[in-house]
Design a protein that fits this description.
Elements (H helix, E strand, L loop, with lengths): L2 H22 L5 H23 L5 H25 L1 H6 L1 H22 L8 H20 L3 H24 L10 H13 L1
Length: 191
């Protein structure tokens, strides 16, 4: 049964390169809406099905998070090819987003020898904002403002992820908020 959610996760590893390939074939921009919706739905349902089928494993959750990063990097490269103007104008927003993402990965690998998989609520919100932003840039020619809004959500989510990583004693998986870590520490100190 683990093959079903794993297949949905791995679908994004196909969709990202497909989007970039389509950018080089001058495909109509509407095709990116289909890719983005398929990516968003596969990201949502891989976790839902894994939990419902009782196969939500740590390695699968980490794979999900890693594939998300790869998927959106391919979409960034795709956007850079078909809509370079807003991305060039918002290059510092992109640098901040990628830098905050890299910092979380680095801390997790250095501290736990594992890739991050917190799945915090702010990270899920950031994923939705990424979807909307890429949809706007790829399909509707949105400008640099979309990148700065996305950057704000990236910094919010990655700040919380960093706090979760730094406060955790064991590799965190599916921690909805930093408050869960803080409440756990508060309970431990009262014993």
């Amino acid at each position: 049964m683990i093959a079903i959610p794993a297949s949905l996760t791995l679908l994004r590893l196909f969709l990202g390169p497909l989007a970039l390939w389509l950018a080089f074939t001058d495909a109509p921009r509407s095709v990116y809406a289909v890719i983005l919706v398929a990516g968003l739905l596969s990201d949502y349902f891989d976790g839902v099905l894994a939990r419902r089928l009782g196969v939500a494993r740590e390695w699968l959750r980490r794979l999900d998070s890693t594939v998300d990063v790869i998927f959106y990097i391919f979409l960034l490269l795709t956007a850079w090819h078909i809509a370079p103007e807003p991305l060039t104008a918002g290059v510092w927003a992109i640098v901040l987003m990628l830098g905050s993402e890299a910092a979380c990965i680095l801390v997790s690998v250095l501290k736990f020898r594992r890739l991050p998989a917190t799945h915090a609520f702010t990270a899920k919100l950031y994923g939705v904002v990424l979807f909307v932003s890429f949809l706007g840039v790829l399909c509707f020619s949105w400008g640099v403002a979309a990148l700065w809004v996305t950057c704000a959500f990236a910094l919010l989510a990655n700040t919380e992820i960093m706090a979760i990583l730094l406060l955790s004693h064991t590799p965190p998986v599916d921690i909805p908020t930093v408050m869960r870590i803080l409440k756990g520490r508060q309970t431990d100190s009262r014993r």
